[in-house]
Amino acid sequence: MLSRDGQPLMPCHPARARELLSKARAVVVRQVPFVIRLKDRTLGESEVDGVQLRIDPGSKGTGVVLTDEKKEPHDRNPVVTVRRGLLSVELQHRGDQIRAGMRQRAGYRRRRRKANLRYRAPRSDNRARRSGWLPPSLRHRVDTTFSLADRLCHWPPVTEIHVESVAFDTHSQSVGRPLHGTEHQRGPLAGTTVREHLRATWNAACAYCGVSGVPLNVDHLRPRSRGGSHRISNLVLACVPCNKAKGSKPVETFLAHRPSRLAAVLSQVRAPLDDAAAMNATRWQLTAVLAALGRPVHAWSGRLTKANRLAMGLDKTHTLDALCIGPLDHAAGDHIVRFPHHALTAKATGRGSYARTTPNRYGFPRLLRPRAKQHHGYVTGDLVRAVVTAGKWAGTWTGRVSIRSSGQHSLATASGRFNCSHRNLRLLQRGDGYAYSSRRESAASVSQKNS
To answer: What is the pTM of this model?
Structure first.
């Protein structure tokens, strides 16, 4: 909620917001998240205590919660701290899509280079990168989290930011047990090479058919085209016929008729560490950029978050973990008294593409894209309200629009997607690169009050 001069005020209950709008004391500033501005009260005439912004970063999703803390009398102690959740937002990243797009672009360029400049010398890898550089898929996680935190600092009076900072021991996770001291310095390839390690592991035989005494290739269990890595647990030895027959198939499909051989191959597979590596690479970057918002930033461990969540009997989600970030003295009676039952989901969708053509599966141009991104007053991603008077979709619908130059736009709603003329649409909010929805928080709390 904003004051008459646009300054942030304390958040109010939805019923209170409806009352202010019905009495014409406020106007709507933004639909999602819903923000109103008062017309009869300034910041100086209001009482503002301040709220806290709590962030639980993740590789694929990040939980952001607005809370307030108050001192209240208690039976055992004179004063205890109670924490209330005011707004929950789950930010869904698209780092995997960016990574796949970068790989696809690299494949297109590699094919063109091979076809047109077959004898060109390899380009030297001598480009310098600035300090703090991150790959685009990881930079996206930091930038989108900062962007959401920046917006939330403009609407409510955020006084401090609490963020969970967790470091993952990827070496211990790959081994499957805790490592100590110099054990971190000796991996599976210590004193050997990849091929020697694989020959010792598979007894110099093909992992798929068991043949030996023939030329063997190093093959990826999970193909690179399907997101597989060069990690040693993703590599096996394969004879030339098996390597060609498997191609880019999943190993489960290729060995479906030989379950015993499939079980032996899958026994060496380890869980991917992409998410843990992404968190290790971005945790200090995120803390550094959040400091630019001008609020005190406090970093807390994941162990403290887990202890608070278990003490309050909450389920494990990004939003509920964000609610539990920060110290709570449970022995003294501190507790969480409320969490939002509905969480706002913000899925990063981007703002379109710079490409002038749409390629086919081989990278060749399939059709030209229009140069203009706005048609009949709308841009893909705008939040609109459609009033359909006849047909199967008769009624009033609200959703995200995908535009066409013909004016017959496509509208995505909770009940499905349908085509609608631009004449039946009314703009509610310009697209900001996110698709918004709502989900119910599936949590059973042991706290005293829920709402």
So the answer is: 0.85
